[in-house]
Amino acid sequence: MPVAIETSYPATILVTGGTGLVGYGIQHIIETEPVGSRFGRRAGETWVFVGSKEADLRDPEQARRIFDKYKPTHVIHLAALVGGLFRNMRYNLSFFRDNTAINENVLRCAHEAGVTKVVSCLSTCVFPDKVTYPLDETKVHLGPPHNSNYGYSYAKRMVDVANHAYHDEHGCNFTSAIPTNVFGPNDNFDLEDAHVIPALIHKCIQAKRNGTPFVVAGSGKPLRQFIYSFDLAKLFIWQLREYNDVEPVILSVGEDEEISIKQVADAIVAAVGFEGEYRFDPSRADGQFRKPASNHKLLSLLDADFEFTPFEAALRDTVRWLVEHYDTDARIGGTVTKTTSSNGVPTLKASNGVHANGNSVVLIKT
Hints:
Distance between the termini: 32 Å
Number of strands: 15
C-alpha cells in the first residue's frame, strides 16, 4: 500500500506543458482553493507553469536550462506532442520520436537535479488494443496498442518503463497518472484536431452563429467516461502530495458514470442555447462502443469526501469559457507542419507550440 508522505517545504513545483488544458486546470485550483487546504497552495510553495515558448523539451539542452533556472523539487510532467486520429496515423514516427525525447529529457533532468517526485501524465491509449474490460492498471503492457496511434501510445507507455527503471536503479520517486477523456476550459477546440466534447461544443456554437444545422457524426450510442479538468487537477495535486508508489493510477470517474455521445450532444445543445435543427448522421462510423476503465484503485486510496463535478455543470462551465474566449485566446484553429530541427531531423511542430497554448511561463508563489 502506498504511503502518504507530506511534501517538504519550501518546494518548487514545475508543471511542464503547464499552459494547456490540464495545466490550466491545476493553475486554477492552486489559485482558487483555500490556502493550506488539501488542494490549495501551501506556505513555502512556488508553482511554475512552463509552456512551449519558454523551452522545446525535445532538446536536452533547453530542458536542462529549465531545470537549472527554476530548480524544481517536484515535477508534474504534462508536456507532449499531441494530435487527433488522422495526424497520429500519418506521423506515427514523429509522435513516437518527439514524445520519447520529451519524456527522456524531463526524467533525466529530474534525476540529475535530485527532484524529490515526478508525476507524469499518460493516456488510456497506452492500453492494448485487444484487452478485457474494464481497463485497470495491471493491463498496460499486456499487448500492443491500437495501430492507429502506436507511435504516441508506445512513447507514453515507455514512461511507465522508465519510472520503474529509475526507481529500481536510483530509488527515484517517479510515478504516472492515466486519465480518461478530459475536457474543460482552455481545451483544444480546433475542429480538425479536437476530442469529442470540445469539437461538439465548437461545432454547436458555429451552428448557432451561422444559423446552420448541428449535425453529430454517428448514432450517438457509444459510451465514454469523461473527467472535468478541474477535478483531474485536484487528483494530480493529490497524487503529487499523497501517493508514493511507482505503479500508475487511473484517474477517472467510475464505470457507472459512462455517458452516451447523445447525452453529451443533448447537454451541449442545452448549454449553448441552440434552437436550430439538431440531428445525428448514422452513416458516419461510431467507433468503439465502450472503453470502460476502473477507478477502483483511485477510490481505494482517496477518502470518501472527494466528489466529482456533475457532468452537466462541468459542461456548462466549459461552454461558458469558450463563448467568453472565442474571439480572443481560445484554441479554435491551427495547423501542424513538418519542420527540420537544427540537427537536420524532420519533426512536427504545432502552430501554437509543442504543447499548450504557447504562453511562456506562469509563476504562483505564497
